[in-house]
Amino acid sequence: MRDIQPILDKVLSGERMTGEDCTALLESYDIAKIGAAAHEIRMRHNPTDVVTYIIDRNINYTNVCNVVCTFCAFYRRPGKPETYVHSIEEIEKRIEETIALGGTGVLMQGGLHPDFNIEWYENLLQTLHAKYPNFQLHCFSPPEIHNISLISKLDYETIMRRLKNAGLYSMPGGGGEILDDEVRKRVSTKCSTQEWLDVMRAVHKVGLRSTATMMFGIGDNISHRVKHLQRIRDVQDETGGFTAFIPWTFQRENTALGR
Ligand code: SF4
What we know:
The protein is an alpha/beta fold. It has 2 domains: 1-51, no CATH class; 53-249, TIM Barrel, CATH 3.20.20.70. Helix content is 46%, strand content 12%. The chain has 10 helices and 6 strands. The protein has helices spanning 5-12, 19-27, 31-45, 88-100, 118-131, 142-152, 156-166, 181-187, 193-205, 222-239; strands at 56-60, 105-109, 136-139, 170-171, 209-216, 242-249. The strands form 2 sheets. It has a 3-stranded parallel β-sheet, with helices on one face. The chain has a 3-stranded parallel β-sheet with strand order 4-5-6, covered by helices on one side. Helix 4 links the parallel strand 1 and strand 2. Iron/sulfur cluster (SF4) binds at residues 65, 67-69, 72, 74-75, 111-112, 143, 188, 190.
């Protein structure tokens, strides 16, 4: 195993990591050393012991989904039993419960519904934003935006501008999974790596911020994870619009891929 100290020294002196460096860190078991270096960098950006958080809630407005992801236990195909679409009143009830608990926003996402066009999303946001103007609507994800573009025949930038004008505050980075089509196409029929990245470019171009995610353990190896990180870093270099990176492991229960 490669000695990672020279890589950490390089990063601490302000140099950028290469893909090879990143591979070595991902292969290393020296988590404490990597954590200490990461903490040092973090203290340079935010030199304080104060760590902040928000109170929010996840709302999934529908589980109807037009595509198939073999790692997903949430979706139901259109017309099948157990499908649901929450009414705006049901969503408002959840928002009010969140506000009562001191919450300041929601993360709202859903499946890729075959009938929901741009007007459906605009109406949802406009209604919620008019009623809760200071409440942060952190909603949707690149696959949902790509689905709107297929249904409403609009480009990503137009969609994002319209959603922003309707009250969208920011966008979660869901649906990233592994941003490499070699892995992605084996486990999902949703938007490609390029489309996910292009949606994010459009989000940032209209002045919205977003997060980025990675779900690993779906047939990927370290080189796929490195490519994923590089692609996100490239967009960040271009736009500076990502505010957070959230990785998690594949949860296999009740999924076709898990079986
Ligand atoms: S797009 Fe994939 S992950 Fe999202 S709800 Fe549909 S099947 Fe599940």
